[in-house]
Specification:
By secondary structure, this protein is of the alpha/beta class. It has a single domain, classed as Alpha-Beta Barrel (TIM Barrel), CATH 3.20.20.100. It is built from 14 helices and 10 strands. It has helices at 7-22, 59-63, 68-80, 95-103, 129-143, 158-163, 165-175, 188-197, 213-217, 219-224, 249-261, 279-288, 305-312, 320-333, and strands at 41-43, 50-52, 54-57, 85-87, 111-116, 148-154, 179-185, 202-206, 228-232, 295-299. Strand 5, helix 5 (129-143) and strand 6 form a beta-alpha-beta unit. The longest helix is centred in the first third of the chain and has 16 residues, at 7-22. The protein is globular, with a radius of gyration of 19 Å.
Length: 342
């Protein structure tokens, strides 16, 4: 079955991967060091997992075509520096294979998440019970493990969730010990429905200074249910880097929102500010300061980046007045169509 990830997302990740490898994105050189500062850990909802607030997202290494030796160095050095959460997906090119090759021998050192729905053997629907089951089996082989800690349904729509077949397949995989927990990855009304079912242990959702729908729509209910919350796109694709509208569709929506929101930390004179109070530091600290958020996954193809990103969090929680200002401006400017972006 073909990769159904949007071409704009694939193109963006390939471009981002090249930039990250070259050190041009999120590269606070003044904070570079041989080891990362100690990271805070949070209990992921009702699960037994204590996760670092900064996790690793594998889309960039997959879509960027990163060489295996670089992946080996990146993941092993990050684990040595405190990383304990690795997130990937069935459709992130060969990322599962690369993760398995790099760190399967260290399986007890990290929690391993993957996703299902966008791959299935020829002739099967990826959202069917057989498709979900086959995808999980494939992921286990590629990751060189007998189990994963968490499987997310990969941004399926309300129709798939209401049908229930994919959820039932996840439940069976959990009962069989193929995954310890099950979650939903997605946004807006589908995410709200998933949370309300009470069947999922975690929600993975977009949340950032340019994507705040989930802060009001799903995060309060997740807190009520003690549901684990994993943030994706937590730095808003670092859209402050673009002086003019980017050509890649995956980034354009966030860039347009940023221009209208006109946050001071995203303006041209702040673009190159490094450290916890630069745009990257503020973006990360914002989403991790929101009650109910447990971790955010950030991708990179640069082995030095984990330590540098961890250093951004040494500023601690974002001050309440800064959070309030970001939220206030969103409520003043956000349009009804500014929904969560997959």
């Amino acid at each position: 079955m073909p990769d159904h990830t949007s071409p704009s997302r694939r193109d963006f990740l390939k471009t981002a991967a090249a930039g990250l490898a070259a050190g041009s994105v999120l590269a606070p050189s003044a904070l570079a060091r041989t080891g990362a500062p100690e990271l805070e850990k949070r209990k992921l909802g009702k699960t037994d997992m204590e996760v670092t607030v900064l996790g690793f997202g594998a889309a960039e290494i997959g879509y960027g075509g990163t060489a295996q030796d670089i992946v080996d160095k990146l993941l092993n050095s990050a684990l040595d520096q405190g990383l304990d959460t690795i997130d990937t997906a069935e459709c992130y090119a060969e990322s599962e294979v690369q993760i398995g090759n790099a760190v399967a021998n260290r399986r007890k050192d990290y929690y391993l998440f993957t996703k299902v729905g966008h791959w299935a053997p020829d002739g099967l629907d990826g959202w069917s019970a057989k498709g979900v089951t086959a995808s999980i089996e494939r992921s286990l082989k590629r990751l060189k493990t007998d189990y994963v800690d968490l499987v997310h349904l990969h941004s399926c729509g309300l129709d798939v969730l209401k049908k229930g077949e994919a959820i039932e397949a996840l439940e069976k995989a959990k009962q069989a010990g193929k995954t310890r927990y099950m979650g939903y990855s997605g946004d807006s009304q589908a995410a709200l429905y998933a949370v309300k079912t009470g069947k999922f242990d975690t929600l993975m959702t977009s949340m950032s200074f340019v994507d705040q729908e989930s802060i009001d729509l799903t995060l309060p209910l997740c807190r009520e249910q003690d549901m684990g919350v994993v943030v994706k796109r937590g730095i808003g694709n670092a859209v402050w880097r673009y002086e003019t509208q980017p050509t890649n569709g995956y980034v354009v929506e966030y860039w347009k929102r940023m221009k209208e929101l006109d946050y001071d930390f995203c303006r041209a004179d702040q673009r190159d500010v490094e450290g916890p109070d630069g745009p990257a530091g503020i973006a990360l600290r914002f989403c991790l300061s929101l009650p109910g958020v447990h971790t955010t996954v950030v991708g990179t193809t640069n082995p030095k980046r984990f330590a540098e990103n961890a250093a951004l969090l040494q500023g601690g929680p974002l001050p309440a007045e800064r959070i309030e200002a970001i939220r206030k401006r969103w409520k003043e400017v956000a349009k009804p169509e500014w929904v969560g972006q997959i």
